[in-house]
Amino acid sequence: MALFKKRTVGKPGEWFYCLKHHKAEEGPECPSKDRFGPYASRAEAEHAMETARERNLEWENDPRWNDDTSGRGQDGDQAP
C-alpha cells in the first residue's frame, strides 16, 4: 500500500486547456501549473488562449490600471 496517493485536481466533466500540449483536455490530465481552466465546455477550453489575449488587451487598455512609466501622472503633471 502506498503512503501517498497521487491525487488529481479537478473533476471529470470539467474542461481545461493544457499549455504544455496545446489542446483541450477533459478532467485533470495535466498538473495545474500547465493548464487554464476549468471551463464548462470543450469549446470554451479550446478558445482559452484567445480568451486570455482578449482579457490581457482589456487590462492593458483599462485606464484604471495604467502603469505610466514616463514619470507623469494621468493628468500630465510630473509625478512626485
Helix-strand blueprint:
Blueprint: E1 15-18, E2 23-26, E3 35-39, H1 42-46, H2 48-60
Antiparallel strand pairs: 1-2, 1-3
Task: Write structural notes for this entry.
- The protein has 80 residues and is of the alpha+beta class.
- It has a domain of 47 residues.
- It is built from 2 helices and 3 strands; from the N terminus they run βββαα.
- It has a 3-stranded antiparallel sheet with strand order 2-1-3.
- Strand 1 and strand 2 form a beta hairpin.
- The longest helix is centred in the last third of the chain and has 13 residues.
- The radius of gyration is 20 Å and the shape is elongated.
- The protein starts with 14 loop residues before the first strand and ends in a 20-residue tail after the last helix.
- The mean pLDDT is 81.
